[in-house]
Design brief:
heterotrimer, A mainly alpha (about 300), B mainly alpha (about 280), C alpha/beta (about 425), A: mainly alpha, MetI-like fold, 2 domains, flat, C: about 425 residues, alpha/beta, D-Maltodextrin-Binding Protein, domain 2, 6-stranded mixed sheet, 17 helices, about 45% helix, globular
Chain lengths: ~300, ~280, ~425
Amino acid sequence: MSATIHRSGAAHGSRATAWAFLSPWVIAFGLFGLFPFAFSLAASFTDYSPIRAGGASFVGLANYARALSDPAFWSALGNTAFFVVGTIPFTTTLALALALAVQPAFRGRTLFRVGFFVPSVVSVVVLSLVFKGLYASNGALDGVLRALGLTPPAWLLDPRTALPAIMAMDVWSASGYYMIIFLAGLEAIPRELYDAARLEGASRRAQLAHITLPLLRPTLLFVLVVNTVRSLQIFAEVFVMTRGGPLHSTTTVVYYLYEEAFYRFNLGYASAVAYLLFLITLALAWVQMKTVRPAGPEAR
Amino acid sequence: MSAAGAQSLRPAWGPSLGRWLWLGPLLLSMLVPFAWMVAISLAPAAGTSFLRALAGPWNLDHYVALFAAAGVGRYLVNSALVAFAVVSLNVATAAMVGYILGRRRVPGERWWTLGIVATLMLPKQVLMIPLYLVLARMHLLDTYAALVLPFAVDAFSIFLVRQFVIGLPIELEEAARVDGASDWLVFRRVVLPLLKPVLAVVAIQSFLANWNSFLFPLIFVDSDRLRTLPVGLALLSQTEHSVDWGFLMAGSTVASLPVLAVFLAFQRQILSGLLAGAEK
Amino acid sequence: MTRARRRNGARPWLAAGILDARLLAGLLAGLLAGLLAVLLVGVLACAPASKTRTIVFWQFWAADVVTPLLAEFEREHPGWKVQMEQLTWQSGREKITAAVASGKVPDLCELGSTWMPRMLASGQLTDWSGGVGDLRPQLRGWELCSTGDRVFGIPWVMGTRALFYNKALFARAGLDSTRPPETWEELHQAAAAIQQLGGDARGFGVQAGERYVLFKKFMPFAWGNGGRILSDDLATSAFDSPQNVDALVYYLSLRKVGMLERQDMLDRAFREGRLGLQISGAWLFRSIAKEAPGLRYGVALVPRPDRERGFHASFAGGEVLVSFAAAKEKEGALALARFLARPENAQALAAAAQSVQPATIGADTSAYYRERPNERLMIEQFETAVPTPNHPAWDDLEAVIEDEVEQALYDRKSAAQAVADAHRRIAERIAKR
């Protein structure tokens, strides 16, 4: 960037301002973030139970060892991984396609923007209840499929289709949400780049490939990282629709640790599982940040 | 296809029709569950059947019951107050922190960003109890503060602004600094206007997240007078073994209207086309 | 290039920008005011205690059901006020857990019987053995809130499961709708007859693998057949028995003459008149009255193996009133609990809620229940209902049983294998403590 040309502090802005602007996050984290994170980390090395009177005893790495040797944990991790891999590409592509489609001016554009956003507006619990009804046998979806002459599976009752059914719901409801973010990113791309490209005779496809996508990389990174973080923590949909069943096929890592924390009151163990998930998420985010590098000044 | 937003006339129907052909069915499919919700809420006689709801007599019985239920008005007001406070704080802090990170003005900015994003990576089910302990120690339980302060600074919004700022051309800021404008003036006069599209997104997503937030308002607040809408709706419509569908759907439809309103209000900001003409 | 821009007067930062200084100042002022207001309300909310003592009561029932009772209590006890907070059924656990963890517990709390084993083992409940001795002959359900001979709560209302049957479908299938099935054989025959009606009619609603529910639907058959889970001293597993295997075989056989679904869908199918028979609970009374008032249905005791063997077993559950060791108003909590457990008050709650019955012994003789044979049958069923063992690791044991039964339901293993595996895993789990 142009940072190579101007090196004086005045052109960069003062350090003092930088730290001052950073302070809201530092203060908020200090007050409300530090203790919960530290407490959970500490708890993960103990047998802490929130309802047991008397303190908790240190157990070292026992919780971590237990998680890594528990087939139920690996099954939950597998389900979660399947969920992430099976939704993120679709959500991201669909969101980007929708954003590209509704960005240029055309009649009824606002209707489509609002319409695609509508699924995200409803709370996830209510949405899950609605889909639970839609997926029920004799439900609306079954009715449509039967009218088409197909025999519908027992969506949420069949271990093979339960998780894909929840994944479909997730892609469906999240696309509109990420579409908005892509829209903001698209709007930030200066018009004159497109104008210049058109003057040089570049096709729409070439414009997309050489201007839009490279300059969208920061936004794309955001969508990928945030969607990954959220998908790895999927819980409410499972809780409402299937309670982790059938045959544990929809038990995700967070659902697994929820049961440990609030039904067996093993918050120490649940914290260890949570930190294992944390490490995995962190590693994935770091990889994503390294691979999707923002476009440099050469793109301009 | 016309690209510039501000200067173009209303586009012709011809090119628009092409889009309608493939976007239309997609839109319909996206709207079906929401349509189901609204239909059920308007047709008490139909139970939970979509087709019967579309056909049957429509009336506002469920909505009347909703607003007659004690507390719903108060829950709405509480949700609105809390959402307003949280959104304002989120927008302000995200602009500040995101800008600094996006311009790499602190050493090791990459690590700061990773750290800030990392705070999103521990599930709230585990954070809930220690956070409850923190709020208890601060005597903030069962207050509005408990619903606002822990959520005032949002890592998601900060990250969003940071990514946006990375893509912003730096020339305007540099020009302003060379002219002698102070840091704060540069931020206020140059950067903030340019951030409008992303801050609009921050406002929308922050409002959405907060408006529908359930777990923390449930845990941190006991009193009915401070209760927010999602918790109130759950209490009023869900018993141990059954759901009062009509009531819940009416409540959810009402709850989704402010979000749609906020979205409509801010989505134009996303497309203000500010950058189209501002530089030249 | 830069100079040219400047000469053209393009200095947007000095021109009246979109975010002009006044607007920004206003926004910041608003923010600050908002923050201050929030903090102020927070501080003011911690008002100093008034002269009357306040009993904080957490419970699950709707406000309009409970508030009249609390008002009556306040009239009888002028020095006390009750501050009632309603919990949600789905997330009450999280709230109570957080409260116990932080010590900010309510004085009196309603807990479901399924939570009691862990709570009893936690040492956080107040010992009420001395304060409720006189109530023991009057209420049932003490096993839900006691360990050994120490009592840690008062049973408030009870809930169990019974056989619901659709009289219209019975008539259509040529069955006598005044004689619901009493034995396993009769149940199977009735379900088969209804299943054969075709269309969308189904015989028996078999509970699909739904956590925390499947157990209550399957175990009645096992218990009724003489099967059990643990030994009396809770030290060993007693699950692997021919009685349990036969019960599971029977339960699996019902799939062919019925439908496999989750509870809410089974209830819906029953309400819509598509399902002939199912095991369900008293909440169905209310939802049928509300959504399908014309449905002709009846309730019967859960069928037993046959007329000479076994008994009409069912699941015994309920709501218990407890106080926590860290509570401030212990005296008030006990007084309120005793008040709520009075026959007329428990009756009032049961009548308003309809999904539970009072824990009072002899409640079925009241005028209210004499007029309502279906609800009275629930009380009769409760007399032969079996409570779950009060083992501290009960939740794990229940999960094991549900897991294995579910695997058998999905034909992943045979009934005998499922029972044997459950027995082994239960034994392992007990041995760990």
